[in-house]
Amino acid sequence: MTVAVLSGLIRPLVEPRLPEWVEPRWFMSREEALELAPSAEIGWFDFAQHGPMAEVVTAATKLKWLNSIYAGLDFLPLDLLAQRGTVVTNGAGINAVTIAEYAVMLMLAHAKGYREVVRAQERREWLLDSPGKRELFGERVLLLGLGAIGGLIKARLEAFGMEVVPVRRSGAEGALRSDEWRGQLGGFDWIVLAVPSTPDTHRMIGAGELAAMKPSAVVVNIARGEVIDQDALVAALTDKRIEAALLDVTTPEPLPEDHPLWALDNAQVTMHLSGRAQTGMFQRSAERFVENLARWRAGEPVRPQMDLALGY
Prior knowledge:
CATH superfamily of the largest domain: NAD(P)-binding Rossmann-like Domain
Largest sheet: 6 strands, parallel
CATH architecture of the largest domain: 3-Layer(aba) Sandwich
Structural class: alpha/beta
Mean pLDDT: 96
Number of helices: 10
């Protein structure tokens, strides 16, 4: 028997489908997870907070395979997991559709001034002109990150007639290489961030990059807050050196009530809701986990596997 320590939250979806060779042990609290972790060969330790999850992973000294619903696991001790030889499957692609839809919604809402339309309705004021006159058609998008989410964003924006230029290390298929995009920032109307959080992507958009953008540029971040130098972004928005920033993610989260981003009319903060704007996340994750159990038993690669050295 293989001991699997699993969150009780996914028990109704997983337990009826577990194979006989799996011995499940369920937890509903941090304390229960810490008690069970040392026995785990397979673990699914997701918590809403990062701290308890990292703590439990560290305590799981026998862990051979770690599964998670989260796509970004940079908060875990990845070096320790690599040292132990633990295989890690993450939630890459689980929420890709809803996050891609959310990114397009943010862009359309900004282009059409929809926030002002909502405010006018709340005031019961009949507007005589549209507060937003921007069209997506024909505008150019620099897409940083072409994974599961970025690929779906690209397809959806191209359906609106936008020119989407992704960034790839190879520069293949019309993409810019990672050493090229900064020199061409001034040629884009939208900069969309869909990269994983790694040491290479931290603050990849800073004061220099913001200064290189055109005054009408809009930054859209559905990646992680730390991929932007937030202080530099606040300064650029305050001085109106770029048109706007549409931020589903910030640093920190939750954003403190007194943070200047809340008060800026050209910043829109959507509280990291993009991945939560759907109902099928747990069902899709459970389905993937059960399929991976069969692969694990057969000695086949489980997927999607993280590259622990790269961090995604």
